[in-house]
Amino acid sequence: MEREELFGGLAGLRRANDGGRRAPHKPLMLLWLINRFVERGTTEVTYEELEHPVGLLIDEFGRPAKRPSRDRAAMPFVHLERSLWSPSAEGTGPIPTHFPERGSRLRAVGARGRLRPAVERLLADPVTLAEVVESLIDHHFTPALRESLLEAAGPGLTDFETIAARVVLTARRPRD
Fold first, then answer.
1. Are strands 85-89 and 17-18 parallel, antiparallel or unpaired?
2. pLDDT of residue 31
3. Residues 6+ apart with CB under 8 A from 58
4. Structural domain of residue 31, as residue ranges?
5. Alpha-carbon distance 80 to 97, whole Å?
6. DSSP labels for 117-153?
């Protein structure tokens, strides 16, 4: 996967239509996964590890639910585009896109996933990572949510943003 393919995949994220409004569940899960990558060097995660923090992000930044649910993270876990994400069930292989969007079912099969290795390789470049985060925020959220979203998605994104900004500024400075 090349950078252009990654950004094309991010721009083409299909968003669920939730009562006439587009639900940002997938971009929120991606931001959480990117924070995990910054902090741990991998996006590999079990559904059990992901469901609570991603569910909280969806509750805070997604469309309000009649009642908050742990299962809110199940939808992006099952439906995030396979060009970016690889979910699997313990011992049985890939999770199909028609798998039930229920946390109990995902936990029962030992669901786990990670961003594809090619995506992780691209995210290893600090400039690309910063551009991916900016792209997700710019395309899916209002500017007013930017700071609170970065803080909520994880400390790796707020700390990393400063480092990445320095890298970009240094790269743009004219050389003597």
1. unpaired
2. 97
3. 23, 24, 25, 28, 72, 73
4. 3-172
5. 9
6. HHHHHHHTSHHHHHHHHHHHHHHHS-GGGHHHHHHHH
Nearest to 61 by CA among 154, 158, 153: 153
Overall number of domains in the chain: 1
The confidence score (pLDDT) of residue 63 equals 79
Give the 3-state secondary structure of residue 99. coil
Structure tokens at 124: 């290893």
Lookup: tokens for 163:
């480092």
* Cβ 124 vs Cβ 86: under 8 Å: no
Bridge partners (DSSP) of residue 85 are 115
d(CA 60, CA 170): 35
Q: What is the CA radius of gyration of the chain?
A: 16
- Nearest-angstrom CA–CA distance, 122 and 174: 26
The two structure tokens encoding residue 152:
């909520």
Rounded to two decimals, the pTM is: 0.87
Residue recorded with tokens 């805070």: 60
Tokens of 165: 């900004």
Q: How would residue 108 be classed by pLDDT, with cut points 50, 70 and 90?
A: very high
**Contact call for residues 122 and 131 (beta carbons, < 8 A):** no
